[in-house]
Structure formats: C-alpha cells, structure tokens
Amino acid sequence: MEKTNVSYRKKPKITVAEASFDVCYLLSLAALGTALAVSGNALWSAAAFVLLCGDALHLAPRISRAAGGAPSVWEERGKLAASVTMTVFYLLLWFYAANGFADVPIGATAAVCALVAIRILLCLLPKSFENGAPFSVAIVRNVPFVALGAAVAALYGTYAGTSAFCLYVCIAVAISFACYVPVVLFARRYPKLGMLMIPKSCAYVAIVALGLMPL
Prior knowledge:
- The chain is an all-alpha fold.
- 75% of the residues lie in helices and 0% in strands.
- Helix 4 (74-98) runs antiparallel to helix 5 (106-123), helix 5 packs antiparallel against helix 6 and helix 7 runs antiparallel to helix 8.
- It is globular.
C-alpha cells in the first residue's frame, strides 16, 4: 500500500488549463456522437462513443485530481481502457469504409482484424501499463497500433482524389499518429513532448466531426 501511495505522489501535477481542455474534449465527443446518431450515421456515432468511453475512464480521474481530488487507481487503468478503445475506434473506421464505399479484399480486412487482436492482447498483458514498465513493452504494444493507423489512412487515402471526406479523414488520421508516435518514443526522456497529445486529441475530434460530412 505504501508503494502505491509513493507512486501516486510522483505523478505530475495536472493544471487547470489541461483539465479544462480534457473536459472540452470529452464534451465535444459526446455532442458529436449524439449528432451523428441523430443524423443516422450509426457506425461513426458508435466509433465516437467508443472513443469517449475509454478516454473518459482515463481523463476523469485526472480532471478530478486537478480539482483537488485524491489520485485514483483508475488513472492507470484508464490508460489501458483508452488504448483498447482507440484500437476499436480505428477498426470501426475501417469497417465504415469497407462496408460502404471502398472495395476492400477480404484478406485486407482479416489482416486488420489480426492487428486489432494482437494490439488488444498486448495491452492486456500483466503490468503492461504499470509505472516503470520497460520501454520495450510500450514499443511492442504500439507496433500493431501504428500499423493499424497506417492501414486506415491508406484506405481512406485511396479515395482522397474523388472524396473530400476521405481526404480529410486520411489527413486527420495521419496527424493523430504524427503526434502520438513521438510521445511513445521520446516522452520518457523529454516529458514536454506529452503536449503533443493535445493536437492528437484535436485530430480525434476532427475525425469524429467529419462523420457529419457527406461522402
């Protein structure tokens, strides 16, 4: 118990500005997900709410801590939840295209599903998200995730010449990973790189908002 408390005391302080951004991010996802559901875009709406649920489990304890609350074990467990839901989010984007406008070989969809399964299994490994977990664990865990993101970006990029929607989704997915990868690789040594998670979150909101755009 004492070890757990020490770990909590070492957590970086959450500023009011950061907590306010997190609240706006979560509310934006909720509002957009609802608007998508009302518009009839059920799959994109589901993707929005999947993303919202995982990120809420991760961010709500941080928002609480910024308001003076005690550290919560859910701050670490939320990272696991968010990692899984981010993966499912991209899988739903893939199926939106594959079951809609894109001509996708069944083998490609099978490969994407395999990447998703591998990524989730790696996330569920014991101690994968504990403080002090080896750097190599984070690298291995994120290899299939980055490959998944590249596949989704490539799929939408294939139709970017004929659809502004596909072009913008491709760009937003690319931006999200361009912000995410440096954090995974270098944030332990350069903590300020964690600020890249802000534009990454904005890219997620943009992706969700694009679901309101006609093909």
